[in-house]
Amino acid sequence: MRIISGEFKGRRLTAPKKLPVRPTTDMAKEALFNIINNTYYFDDISVLDLFSGTGNISYEFASRGTQDITAVDENFGCIKFINETSDVFEMSINTVKSDVYKFLEQNNKTYDVIFADPPYDFTLEQFSKIPELVFNQNLLAENGVLIVEHSKYTKLDTLEYFNYSKIYGGNCFSFFSKKDDA
């Protein structure tokens, strides 16, 4: 995997093979960040990276200037790798080793961007718990967005707060936010 833009553009990162991860492809990541770039100033936002795995998405935000990043994963090896990598690059990524659902239930901070990359084999019920907890706990800042990465074969368009999705290869990003009442 590589960092595609920002201060650390072009840097390649090699995660240990034993980590239970499926990093977002460079093509999909580049498309995703083009969308985010049209909405936010990276140095002004707070980011929550759920099911963070290798930290691929967190590094991309940090490379583009985001200082307030929290990466959550329940795997100790993933958290250790993110901590080691962010130390090497002097990135301000706060890691939390936790079950994502428990973290969402107990957290009270708000974020501009919440990115979730759960296992692709999740059931619709498991996927639906993510936006349910994010919105019930009011974890999104005003004009914030929840982005859930999933397989293009998984359809999340029936879930509450769903806005739209974009497909890139086998990856799909579904965007969730509160709709304007106006």
TrEMBL record:
The keyword Transferase is assigned to this record: yes
Keyword Transferase: yes
Transmembrane segments: none
Biological processes per GO annotation: rRNA methylation
Keyword list, A-Z: Methyltransferase, Transferase
GO MF annotations in UniProt: methyltransferase activity; nucleic acid binding
PANTHER family per the UniProt record, alphabetical: METHYLTRANSFERASE
Protein name: 16S rRNA (Guanine(966)-N(2))-methyltransferase RsmD
Species annotation: Aurantibacter aestuarii
Taxonomic lineage of the native organism: Bacteria, Pseudomonadati, Bacteroidota, Flavobacteriia, Flavobacteriales
